[in-house]
């Protein structure tokens, strides 16, 4: 009897400590797309419809082992796909889900997961957005998006999918193409006044289009003489860029290179073609040098290849030396972003980073992994974001936030300053830590400016991998751990991930 009880106790302990990330075969910092793809793969393999007991010819309920295994997989997905439940799980484990969470017990047929689930997850040109992604990437940026609001249960949505994929590939690099699954996030769709599927919406203008009217968007070209030009010279016998490809190219190089066309067959433009000795085709001209002899012939008509070649002609990213770096640490007149690399060869695959100065005109020395602020502090992109869009979002958020990476000297000064500080003790390899840093970066954007205390709040980061002795002295036992230091000398710790709004509640 004792042995049986001991075994039961061990079984309960194992179940209560189920690791949802290992169950789905993913890392703890996996994004939504990775989570969905991992779940779909397991759903197709492990679904009870495909794992019936060969000795039983009834439904899956007579094969309890397959059903129980799939319920665990489904529950793991239900928890990790939702930002709020994932936060609770990361912080408290399964105990944090006990209040009211009933997900995982019901699921769809094998055919649904095989044919209808995650219809855009294998399309890198289409970004599937959840509520948090939509807020950060669409609502908070004045950037062009074309978003397909759909439902996995909508037959018309599946009929549109091949056209949407083809359109996304044709517009890659020109505008951002997104998708929102309203079956997974109905609240987001309702907030965008989407009540029928599929619905196509252009942002930031919030223009609703019919699904039979997918067209590239016209761009206005302004002849800024300080920028280089790509000119498409048309001859009767030569090939020209189509209007669509010309617009796509202009969108890809917006703010960097002007795009224009000259029809050499027209008498009004023939003189310019002769002056430039231009033959049919596409040529690149440096800024203020639309003259014969300065052109670079571009031997293709594909907008993506033309944009890639044009970025190669732009000036290299400015280098700064040790003295320049010391000057940045003392403070700058304008925010400055710097990328630290092992060698200049590392930039060969980052040509699109040359687009950052046009997108962020108030920030100098791009691209970045560290932003230096006008206050003299700096912030490191510990998440090591890879894409141009992610890097741009980090810079835009970090230059306005009061968050700073602290040295040992700055840390000692902060905790003894008699000012209101939050110190975040973290490790760069810890996914919940990196998500919490993002919340701290956005914290001041939700603070009521009429409050007499909170706008004065300062936020510092201590890397416990680098300053382990500081973290031990502060009594840090797990990551992330935050400590609130008040002007009257009190110190209040709170452990784990917290959303920005929750942090404000804890401070109050």
TrEMBL record:
Q: Where is the J domain?
A: 19-93
Its primary localisation, in coarse terms, equals endoplasmic reticulum
Query: In its keyword annotation, does this UniProt entry include Metal-binding?
Result: no
Keywords from the UniProt entry: Autophagy, Signal
Sample GO molecular function, one term: misfolded protein binding
Q: Which SUPFAM superfamilies match?
A: Chaperone J-domain, Thioredoxin-like
Per the UniProt entry, the signal peptide is: 1-16
Q: Which GO terms describe its cellular component?
A: endoplasmic reticulum lumen; endoplasmic reticulum membrane
Free-text function comment from the UniProt entry: Plays an important role in regulating the size of autophagosomes during the formation process.
The record, for PANTHER family, names: DNAJ HOMOLOG SUBFAMILY C MEMBER 10 (PTHR44340)
Which protein is depicted?
DnaJ homolog subfamily C member 10
Q: Which organism is it from?
A: Oesophagostomum dentatum (Nodular worm)
Q: What is the lineage of its organism?
A: Eukaryota, Metazoa, Ecdysozoa, Nematoda, Chromadorea
């Amino acid at each position: 009897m004792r042995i049986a009880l001991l075994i039961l106790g061990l079984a309960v302990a194992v179940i209560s400590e189920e690791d949802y990330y290992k169950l789905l075969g993913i890392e703890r910092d996996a994004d939504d797309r990775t989570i969905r793809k991992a779940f779909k793969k397991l759903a197709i393999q492990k679904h009870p419809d495909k794992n019936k007991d060969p000795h039983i010819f009834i439904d899956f309920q007579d094969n309890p082992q397959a059903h129980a295994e799939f319920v665990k997989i489904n529950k793991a997905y239900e928890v990790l796909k939702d930002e709020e439940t994932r936060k609770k799980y990361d912080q408290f484990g399964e105990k944090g889900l006990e209040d009211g969470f009933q997900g995982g017990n019901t699921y769809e047929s094998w055919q649904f997961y095989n044919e209808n689930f995650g219809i855009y997850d294998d399309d890198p040109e289409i970004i599937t957005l959840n509520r948090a992604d939509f807020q950060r990437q669409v609502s908070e940026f004045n950037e062009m998006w074309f978003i397909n609001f759909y439902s996995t249960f909508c037959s018309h949505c599946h009929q549109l999918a091949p056209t949407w994929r083809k359109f996304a590939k044709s517009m890659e690099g020109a505008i951002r193409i997104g998708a929102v699954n309203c079956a997974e996030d109905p609240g987001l769709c309702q907030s965008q006044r989407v009540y029928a599927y599929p619905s196509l919406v252009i942002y930031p203008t919030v223009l609703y289009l019919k699904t039979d009217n997918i067209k590239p968007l016209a761009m206005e070209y302004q002849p800024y003489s300080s920028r280089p030009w790509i000119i498409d010279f048309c001859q009767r016998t030569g090939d020209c860029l189509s209007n669509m490809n010309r617009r796509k190219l202009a969108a890809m190089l917006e703010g960097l290179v002007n795009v224009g066309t000259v029809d050499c067959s027209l008498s009004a433009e023939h003189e310019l073609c002769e002056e430039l000795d231009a033959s049919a085709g596409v040529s690149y001209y440096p800024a203020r040098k639309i003259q014969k002899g300065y052109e670079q012939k571009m031997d293709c008509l594909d907008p993506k290849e033309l944009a890639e070649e044009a970025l190669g002609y732009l000036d290299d990213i400015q280098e700064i030396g040790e003295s320049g770096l010391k000057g940045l640490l003392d403070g700058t007149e304008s925010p400055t972003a710097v990328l630290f690399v092992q060698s200049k060869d590392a930039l060969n695959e980052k040509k699109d980073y040359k687009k950052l100065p046009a997108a962020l005109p108030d920030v100098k020395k791009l691209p970045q992994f560290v932003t230096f602020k006008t206050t003299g502090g700096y912030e490191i992109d510990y998440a090591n974001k890879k894409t141009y869009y992610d890097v741009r979002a980090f810079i835009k958020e970090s230059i306005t936030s009061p968050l700073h990476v602290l040295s040992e000297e700055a840390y000692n000064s902060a905790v003894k300053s008699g000012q209101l500080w939050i110190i975040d003790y973290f490790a760069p390899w810890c996914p919940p830590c990196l998500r919490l840093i993002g919340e701290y970066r956005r914290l001041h954007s939700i603070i009521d400016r009429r409050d007499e205390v909170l706008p004065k709040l300062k936020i510092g980061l201590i890397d416990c991998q680098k300053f382990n002795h500081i973290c031990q002295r502060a009594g840090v036992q797990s990551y992330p751990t935050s400590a609130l230091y008040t002007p009257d000398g009190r110190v209040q710790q709170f452990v784990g991930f917290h959303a920005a709004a929750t942090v404000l509640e804890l401070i109050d």
